[in-house]
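Obj.: predict assembly geometry.
Materials: sequence records (below).
Method: joint structure prediction, all chains together.
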Amino acid sequence: MPDSSGRTHGSAVAVTIAGVAIVSIWEFIGQRWNVLVPEALLHASAVLQCTLIAAVLGVLLGVLVYRSPAGSAIATALTSAILTIPSFALIGLLIPVLGLGVPPTVVALVLYGLLPIVRNTIVGLDGVDPAITDAARGIGMGRAVVLTRVELRLAWPAILAGIRVSTQLLMGIAAIAAYAKGPGLGTEIFSGLVRAGSANATNEALAGTLGVVVLALVVDGIYVIISRLTTSRGIRV
Amino acid sequence: MSETTDQKISGVEIELAEVTKRYAGQKTPAVDGFSMTIPAGETIVFVGPSGCGKTTTMKMINRLIEPTSGQITIGGESALKIDPDQLRRRIGYAIQQAGLFPHLTVAQNIAVVPGLLGWDKKKVRDRVVEMLDLVGLDEEFAGRFPRQLSGGQQQRVGVARALAADPPVLLMDEPFGAVDPITRGNLQDELLRLQAELRKTIVFVTHDFDEAVKLGDRIAVLGNQSKILQYDTPEAILANPADDTVAGFVGAGASLKQLTLMRVRDVELKTDLVTVSTEDTPADVRQKLTNARKTYALVLDRRNRPLRWLHVRELASAGSLATVGRPVGDTVSVQSTLQDALEAILTEGGNAAVTGGRGEYVGTIDIRTVTDTIQQVREEHENDHENSAGGAG
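Observations (raw structure tokens):
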């Protein structure tokens, strides 16, 4: 369906702007600025919200299983399995169940975002020196207090690193969500690819791609700042 | 050993009765029917080979390990009937490598237990300063993180954290095991000083017998399954080990170790030495020596401090006593251990001058005094096992 409509749409544009068909990518971005910026914001917003949901679920899952080697193995295997499903396929398979738009996008992104967070949560909590938790218990901290005031604080750099990897991962995958009419820069990429060969099609796909890359770099920079602000000086590397 | 400061005891008695720990799937219990009374305000050292269950036994006192059966009473209260977290806030806990929270500052580490107990902020702040002072750390350490401290400093903070809420009982699990020997010696001295002041009930676990001898009011030598092989004062164990296993653990040089436990003030000093002052004339000295039928004298300065050894032969050529004779090399204070005294005797060649609190001469000590003392201690403890076997078993 997107195939036929895309083609019609593409050729129409090519005719209309035939005279100025060959613009540079920078000119193209300049012309499309008013469209690209909202799309980038939507893209970032979708990714960050899904990362947040994945972080809550992932840390929760990690906390539930980290004490048991078997549980840790199963949780890691399951979340890895999700990641092996091609994103295009997963989103495609979700459309009949959840319809188009936001729901399949969110579900897919959250599922993909889980692995790095779950794995790093387990690794981070597992890496806490047993002598420290022994001391914490020994001076009268309850289980929950040890977890929230000691273990999670010490595992935080690892967990945050997992969240950061997730975000990067989702930046790319979110673009594919445009296939399910999800929001973001994927729209540009898809419509560009669909019109491949016609005027400015490459520019359009390239603009979307560049947008994703720039967005990813900016967000990564923000993570560096978050990491410095939220990690105790006593455990900063 | 001295029981004269009873009124300052802040520790409480701990009683373990038939305490057993059995792990699922293991035939033999890890700790089998352990019974012991730990007197209030004493330092008890559990010493034994690794894996003998000494740490397990200690951890059952604060219920980090739940006993399978038996009774534990702390200060008259059954430890098994209190909420474990509440119980642990009333028992100090210090472990190897300190186990400090790396993400918290020194001050925050020390403030953890008072915080859990809900002290108000001002009280906690004052307490942190007090504790730093107690363990001999400058106040500037308060804002540092554990990784910015040396091993010895971390260990001090560990002890400060354990003592912050002023618990009557302190459990220490090989706390000085991971620091270099010099720092360990210093930390042990600090602990002795602290304990002299605080008089907590301390249960200290180590595999280092010398450490046990140095720190313990009593030592429990433990065998497999935490079986008490001998539970007695260091002097008694050194003088008469209960069996070959204990003897093996005591190791070579039991008598030399015994010497570290006794102080010069505890033995009878010789006072028959001829002492003269720098103002005496050589003729006076010769007269004194002849009267006492001695060949040498000790020259003292105006404040009675030992200056030089003077042999009768050296008198002939001497005009005055100001410079003649051999300078006293090594003196011993009444506070010194007999080990220090022996060292001085060996370097001085027979006699060592003993000085009092202000450095004044109080007598001499020789090798006979030392050997007699060791002999005496051995005789005192010769018949120990007929009485103590029942108490320890």
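Conclusions so far: Chain B is about 35% helix and 20% strand.
To do: check interface contacts against the pulldown list.
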